[in-house]
Amino acid sequence: MPEGTLYLVPSPLGDTNPLLVMPAAALNTILKADYFIVESVRTARRLIASIPGHKTIAELHFQEMGKHADIDSAIKFLEHAANGNDIVLLSEAGSPCVADPGGIVVAAAHRMKLNVKPLAGPSSIIQALMASGFNGQQFTFAGYLPIDAGQRKDAIRRAEKLLLATGQTQIFIETPFRNNQIIDSLVETCQPSTMLCIASGIGSEEEKIVSRPLSWWKANKPPIGKVPAVFLLGKSLLAD
Q1: Which of 1, 95, 169, 198 is 20 to 30 A from 163 via CA?
Q2: What is the pLDDT of residues 98-129, one digit of tens each?
Q3: In the CATH hierarchy, which top-level class contains the domain 124-234?
Q4: pTM for this predicted structure
Q5: Using a CB cutoff of 8 Å and minimum separation of 24, what contacts does 180-183 make?
């Protein structure tokens, strides 16, 4: 019996019709699959139910792999692929395993010598980089900045130093309720001429992407509140 494949399927970033943002290959993979590893069964069921032609939800098999879920159970779930069934690893939002749970499941799949196939779809990090006007050839994704204000500013200083020395775009994300804190730290720490792109609400009706020097942001702090955002430090590709 041929082994199944572990498909890595990106999901919509916001409350958006999946038909508008998910490629046909991703939609078709979801429609054909019976086995799913997900962060939240409730969210996954809602997504699947929104895709025309889906199977009866009761027919499907789900294994949660959220923040507090049993990772060993998620890995054991891969045995379904070893028995010839395709499995879909679904993110709660965006691309699986990129600033997102799931990497350990993929590592286990490789150890089991299973086929692993990533599919194209929404990714707030890549979409923010695309829309920033900054260097897309060289970039660093630094993930979450430290919670401590002093450590956060130190991390920002190191990132700006690397940007100025190499031209590499520096990308951060943050828990939405700390958006204002990271903006304050960036404004207080970076040089006025350094460029900052704030990409908030990507993939939703609240989407707003603006690239300006830190000197501009200091006078125009955005009221993004708790909307998910990506922050990028960079250099404009236009000559001064």
Answers
A1: 95
A2: 888 888 899 999 999 999 999 998 899 999 99
A3: alpha beta
A4: 0.88
A5: 180/221, 180/224, 181/149, 181/152, 182/145, 182/152, 182/231, 183/217, 183/221, 183/222, 183/231
